[in-house]
Amino acid sequence: MKHGIFLIVLISMICRADMNMSLGEQDSRMWETQALRLPWFTRWSCILDMQEPYAHWFVGGHINASYACLDIHIKNGKKNKTAIYWTNEQGGSGTVTYQELYQDVNSFAKYMRSCGVGFGDKVVIYMPMIPEAVVAMLACARLGAIHVVVFSGFSSQAIKDRIVDTQAKCIITCDVSYYRGKILNLKSIVDQALVDSDLERKVILIKRTQEPVGLVPERDLIYAKPEVKNLSLDPVPVESNHPLFILYTSGTTGKPKGIVHSTGGYLTYVFSTIEWVFGITPESIYWCTADFGWITGHSYGVYGPLMHGATIVLREGAPDWPDEKSWWKVIDQYKVSIFYTSPTALRMFMRLGPDLLQGADLSSLRVLGSVGEPINPEVWRWYHEQIGRKACPIIDTWWQTETGGFMIAPTAGSTMVPLKPGSATFAMPGIEASVVDSYGNPVPADTKGFLVIKKPWPGMAIGIYNNPALFKDIYWTRFSGMYYAGDYAVRDTDGYFWLLGRADEVIKVAGHRIGTAEVESIVLEHQSVAENAAIGISDPIKGEVIVIFIVLKHGYQVNQELHDQIINLVRTKIGSFATPKEIYCVEKLPKTRSGKIMRRLLKTLIEGCLIGDISTLEDDASVEEIQQVLQSADLYIKRVRI
Ligand code: WTA
Description:
alpha/beta; five-stranded parallel beta sheet; globular; disordered N terminus; binds 5'-O-[(S)-ethoxy(hydroxy)phosphoryl]adenosine
């Protein structure tokens, strides 16, 4: 025993916790206690090895995410418990038990392995919100393969970019998906993404219809669910810091970046936070409406609820299709107890008036969550009163792809603080969040500043795929020893956090993250465009929408055709959710002397705010420059709407 203790002391001395961002003894113990609640194959030798900006949690411990989501429940006698209720626009529905999900995952993992997919291989998943998508994710995890889920609303270009960046070995897709009464041909979108790609890269197709589908010999394989029901494949124990997945997200510059998440630290964090925040239990009927292609779908759509042995609800299709009552009928039908959605969806329903909820019994609801964008107090109140009958707490959760899980949110699973409509309240246990000025000093109460995190946490991303330098640059250089989130926030005199939106060039359209640079580089591909600037402006439903300012090359004219071409370019290169709302043709773009486009000025002008309010302007631009541009703003902006 004495030797054991000695060894532990020795090992923890080896672990480095250099840098400013260190973890206290109390937090270490708390995270270790939480990690111990998961089924590890081997115990870690060190809780945290932090070499800023890289945090390695539970070093040397081995775990498998599919084991933690499935095998453990089968072993605990829960095999007949419902894992998934699924439903869709056409009225189809069904249930999948934990035993069935376990079998499906094992069979699919075996099939993937027979196709050559193994430990560390990257696998792109392009699928709708159906149980097979969960199976694909968990099958990757079972093999130690790394999934790269692509939102099924993205275009072929987005799939291609992710395949190229990750050198994915395999793509899993379906022939079709169903959305708003239409049939979308997913396989053909994948085909376009793979034009010119080598045949070594396999496409595993899960067919949902009897319709014939074009197959590329040697490349495309149709998965047939085996008749044999007891296929099993031992989960591959992976070291805690082996990537569970890569998920692409937009930032200030360039193309979307591949955010890499670990296995052990990530699972520990998601497992803990979903319990603290939503109070999830195995009895919960839990519906998270986010697509699997976003971080919310990963952490709180799949891994969090399944680790707890809860029942998840999946619905394929548009929220208001076939009618506006569809979602509320789903809640009634499955007796959903925890419901988690976005302010955009709520705003859309809110404007429909009081008849919306008639005929749907929502009394099963216990907790209501919100994510992705600030929730306006008015929407918060509607959610609380109309959906929650004033009986459910509104859990506004602030977090990001990079944070892996909730960072600031009320904790319905333990002591609840009094809620304030529109505030995400306080940071999670173990999370030290602060609002600072541009020098990194804490700002006084009720003052706007930058949100930072000062201590490491197990859910934090372990890097940007293929670009370690960028990871440091984006998140860890602006403020020494702190994680820079890229959001503005305020803390009120009671210490509550109020999130105010992005402080950088990221736009949130209906909660979906899009970088202005991403849009601008696409618009620039149009032969007539000399220069352009994309901005996000407020929208009563979607929170923000994209508006583009273009400067035409000499000899080109503004007309409807040009307008349509540019709109289509963005739709086809990113996806229809990114469709710009307006395009303005201008003679010059307002810039700083150093050549930086002043997007905030454009936003101010278009939203009709007072131009004199220079606090809304680009932070890096000097005030003098800004004032000069402001004085001549009329010359710069010629409001010609195409
Ligand atoms: C924004 C989504 C206000 C924020 C989980 C953040 C929010 C970005 C909230 C991350 C919230 C997320 N209140 N803003 N409750 N939740 N955001 O990576 O700007 O898609 O930086 O992750 O969404 O978006 P992402």
